[in-house]
């Protein structure tokens, strides 16, 4: 039965992800909140494992990019570079090493975005809360 529940939760979440249908999000929320403690733990652990696998896949991809070390002097190449020890070294490398003007560096920095990366910490806290709620 647990496998069917996990599968259904995955399917509903995938449908919401694909269509962004608020009804699917509500259905997902209703399903999650209606689970008993045992099923909640199974679902949380399942999502936790999926996030771990996604993080592992991302690490492998980053590692492969680093091995290629294709450097053409473009700002995009910095995404594949290993992290410098500090901002000063990075700026020197861009201006003096890659011959980028200070204006080019400024423009590239002001257009940066940050993506949210989900980790399993919240899911582990959720599991802990579920366990505590079943123990009284």
From TrEMBL:
<dbReference type="GO" id="GO:0015977">
    <property type="term" value="P:carbon fixation"/>
</dbReference>
<dbReference type="InterPro" id="IPR021135">
    <property type="entry name" value="PEP_COase"/>
</dbReference>
<dbReference type="GO" id="GO:0006099">
    <property type="term" value="P:tricarboxylic acid cycle"/>
</dbReference>
<dbReference type="GO" id="GO:0005829">
    <property type="term" value="C:cytosol"/>
</dbReference>
<dbReference type="GO" id="GO:0048366">
    <property type="term" value="P:leaf development"/>
</dbReference>
<dbReference type="Pfam" id="PF00311">
    <property type="entry name" value="PEPcase"/>
</dbReference>
<protein>
    <submittedName>
        <fullName>Uncharacterized protein</fullName>
    </submittedName>
</protein>
<dbReference type="GO" id="GO:0008964">
    <property type="term" value="F:phosphoenolpyruvate carboxylase activity"/>
</dbReference>
<dbReference type="InterPro" id="IPR015813">
    <property type="entry name" value="Pyrv/PenolPyrv_kinase-like_dom"/>
</dbReference>
<dbReference type="GO" id="GO:0048046">
    <property type="term" value="C:apoplast"/>
</dbReference>
<dbReference type="GO" id="GO:0009507">
    <property type="term" value="C:chloroplast"/>
</dbReference>
């Amino acid at each position: 039965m647990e496998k069917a529940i996990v599968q259904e939760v995955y399917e509903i979440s995938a449908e919401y992800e694909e269509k962004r249908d608020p009804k699917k999000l509500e259905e997902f929320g209703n399903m999650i909140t209606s689970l008993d403690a045992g099923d909640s733990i199974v679902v949380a652990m399942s999502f936790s494992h999926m996030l771990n696998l996604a993080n592992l896949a991302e690490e492998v991809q980053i590692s492969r990019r680093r091995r290629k070390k294709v450097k053409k002097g473009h700002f995009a190449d910095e995404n594949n570079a290993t992290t410098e020890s500090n901002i000063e070294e990075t700026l020197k490398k861009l201006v003096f090493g890659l011959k980028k003007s200070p204006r080019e560096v400024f423009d590239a920095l002001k257009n940066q975005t940050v993506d949210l990366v989900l980790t399993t910490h919240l899911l582990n806290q959720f599991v802990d809360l579920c366990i505590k709620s079943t123990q009284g």
